[in-house]
Prior knowledge:
The structure is a homodimer. By secondary structure, chain A is mainly alpha-helical.
Amino acid sequence: xxxxxxxxxxxARSGVAPSALRYYERLGLISSTRTGGNQRRYxxxxxxxxxxxxxxAQVGVPLEEIGAALADLPAGRxxxxxxxxxxxxAWRSRLDEQIALMERLRDRxxxxxxxxxxxxxxxxxxxxxxxxxxxxxxxxxxxxxx
Amino acid sequence: xxxxxxxxxxxARSGVAPSALRYYERLGLISSTRTGGNQRRYxxxxxxxxxxxxxxAQVGVPLEEIGAALADLPAGRxxxxxxxxxxxxAWRSRLDEQIALMERLRDRxxxxxxxxxxxxxxxxxxxxxxxxxxxxxxxxxxxxxx
DNA sequence: CCTTGAGTTGAAGCTCACTTCAACTTGCAG
DNA sequence: CTGCAAGTTGAAGTGAGCTTCAACTCAAGG
Lengths: 146, 146
């Protein structure tokens, strides 16, 4: 019917509030053309961009970084399959890292925090960190990134 | 040597800034005794609490909720192994959920956003959401929790 | 004792990611 | 043509999670 979306339509379709979409636009994450009366109109390809933004934000990537990644997409034309594939490959490793981090955290929680060792003094990890190694990491080790 | 930790020691051992520790204390997430000169002294078991707080916050649990969970720990005494086990079991399922969500996101990113379908119109998911189902979820589906 | 680094407070400030507001304009259905 | 939902703007507000500041006190080594 119409091949450009109003901000309300993009909002309904993406699940992102109009105010947030305007915010994303101010940050340069998405873009629009304007009608004669100055209203925003979005290409359908923006739906994909918004989905990408939400997925990325959900896993903790700051909007600024998402913007930097999106800036690698071609400016003038609608991104091709190849464009998106390139972008999502880089992002995938980021997701994999984040997932791996969380799995480590979960296993530590189970194996160490769950066992009561820090207060019961029956855990190797605790004894190493807290009683043997003065500069020792102890629980800190849990939080290291990368 | 000393069996109570100063705020600086707890900070060094946990990797959390003193200001953040005071903040946690204001919120009731951790507690301390005071010296004659009004300085905080922490029991060693607080290290475990702080580790728990950081792990939980890292996966997106708001501090208020973490506080609610910690409130289930016994007030007077140092928590036992059983106390922590109960707490961490409930939390583990939360971590599992979060991990599963991220895996779903990753797979969708690979299988759908990665393939270029939203702009190339070759993807079932896209066609369903965007062309067949008017109230359809489309990319929104990606973001649903639970 | 003296110095110095560590700790104390409440209040204010900061970043991120938005939302809300007020005052106004557009676009479309009837 | 009219009415009204939907859109526009910049500025200010929100809430989470801290950090910084100023002005001060404490604790411990030399």
